[in-house]
Amino acid sequence: MFSKITVHRVGNKINGESLILSQEELILDEGMQELLENYFLGTFKSEESFQFYSDSYLVNNPVYSSVSEIFEDKSKFMWESENIAKHLYEVAENPRVQGGELFIVYFEGEETDAGKIDSIGIFKTEKRESFLKIFPQNETFEIEKDQGIGLSKIDKAALIYNNNKESGYVLSVVDNNKNGDLYYWFEDFLKVKQRDDEYFHTQETLMVYKDFITQQLPQEFEVSKADQADFLNKSINFFKEKEQFDFEEFTNEVLEDKNVIESFVNFKTDYEQDMQVNISEEFPINTSAVKKQQRHFKSIIKLDKNFHIYIHGDRKMIDQGQDEKGKFYILYFDKEV
Question: Looking at residues 102-123, what average pLDDT do you find?
């Protein structure tokens, strides 16, 4: 359960909307607390984690500075919540950014073997949903239309855990309503970047490998669409079956050919330089990252507008050729299912 909560109204400064700051914490009954806690925390589904950063010193990151003050002294909760709201108001430089309520919440951590870790939640509601109010009137009912906040999914959220302060804390961040502005919540307001952890390395390795197979490999080697599909399938199976990633083991089992391996090594190096990241060659495989990336590993061969061939397994069960009628694929199978 949270022990502190307040709400401010943050409009869009560019559109002339106002900033309305609350002067007191909200006092809620237990039922409302439980409802809001489920609403706030239910949005965090991914294991992807982030950390605050600054172009100079971390203390110059406004949100980092404010949450640090609150973690140090909870009596500063209201003052720093106002500073967070003022910062959010100032960074809205896109007229498409929607105004809304900004909730600042202090969550008391549960006791674990690793100790008690408190957290601070920052949540913004933007969208309004229509709903009906039906109530009895004499011998019939009346219906009124109204608008309010839907409880199915919050628009923007950040949960900051009170650990790893020196490196920018550990955050979970969600933006479900980008309003045509991809940077407003992650970059302009929070100023966060993805943490260098097993989720990150699993995700980045799969991304750079997919780009290599679909973009670079056909330029350097004579490979068919079926070969590319086979490479994609073998890579996903490797990540599903292994608990630990080893770059040499991966390339030998999945790519096999030394010339292809060399090309991939060069492609990965260029990718790291272009994206300014450093992808480890040994790390524990994160299953959540594998599941998320698997959606992009679609082993499909599209033939004109007539057919799609989905390849899920053995490359040897598909062959191709050409005759007087045109190009063709031959599929071998044991039984129809």
Answer: 89
pLDDT bucket at 224, cuts 50 / 70 / 90: confident
List C-alpha distances in Å: 101 to 31, 127, 175: 21, 10, 15
**Coil, helix or strand at residue 92:** coil
Model confidence pLDDT, tens digit, residues 268-284 = 999 999 988 899 999 99
What does DSSP assign to residue 167? Answer: G
Q: Rounded to whole angstroms, what are the CA distances from 129 to 103, 126, 151?
A: 19, 10, 10
Q: Is 116 helix (H, G, I), strand (E, B) or coil?
A: coil
Give 154's pLDDT tier (boundaries 50, 70, 90). very high
Partner residues linked to 51 by β-bridges: 193
The residues that bridge with 246 in the sheet, in sequence order, are 282
| pLDDT, tens digit (0-9, with 9 covering 90-100), for 5-45 | 999 999 999 999 999 999 999 999 999 999 999 999 998 98
Classify burial at 315, counting beta carbons within 10 Å of its beta carbon; exposed 0-12, middle 13-18, buried 19 or more: middle
Q: What residues contact 62, with CB distance under 8 A and at least 6 apart? A: 83, 84, 87
Task: Measure Cα distances from 240 to 160, 227, 246, 281 in Å.
Answer: 30, 20, 14, 17
Residue in 310, 318, 297 with CA at minimum distance from that of residue 234: 297
Contacts of 141 (CB under 8 A, 6+ apart): 134, 135
> What pTM was estimated for this model as a whole?
0.82
